[in-house]
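Weekly structure sync, notes
Attendees: PL (lead), two postdocs, one rotation student
Agenda item 3: pending single-chain targets
PL asked that the sequence for the first pending target be pasted directly into the notes so everyone works from the same version. It is reproduced below exactly as submitted, 179 residues in total.
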Amino acid sequence: MDTIELDPRLRHASNFLGRSSKMLIDGKMVGAASGKTFEVLYNPATGAVIANVPEGDKADVDLAVAAARRAFDNGVWAKVSPSEKGRMLWRLADLIERDLEELAELESIDNGKPYAVARVADLPLAVDMFRYMGGWATKISGRTIPWSLPGRFLSYTVKEPVGVVGQIIPWNFPLLMAA
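Predicted structure, written out during the meeting:
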């Protein structure tokens, strides 16, 4: 691995860089099923490597989707009340806010954007998004719609989660896209 030369202002990120990276699948931190990894670059201009990360492929996606489906249908998450889900999202926003400096440094290093942009845009917007969505957890419900027909007829709607979703996200706002 090449020596990493960080901007001296990016002092928090050095605690994270160089660690062994894994994927979170089914509640466990795992490597790729194939055992393959790939290098993540610190800066496209310098090519300095910051880490090797698992090279997830179809087998890993299948494992992750199956685990997510089990968790969605039968797991603990399915039993969590909307209020508690909202509190969890708010707590995540609080943790991001607490570690904002380190996360802004990592976001800057990860996608090559200026630290100042990550610090004032990416991270605060992610915090806001988690808080906003956390507030919706108790407000999504169905509706009763009266019909304009002779007689008394009502239509009932039910809001149901979409379920397991896979995303391929743009490179320029990875944290915000996850939020």
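Discussion points:
- The CA atoms of residues 72 and 161 lie 9 Å apart.
- The first strand starts at residue 23 and ends at 25.
Action: rotation student to compare against the earlier draft before next sync.
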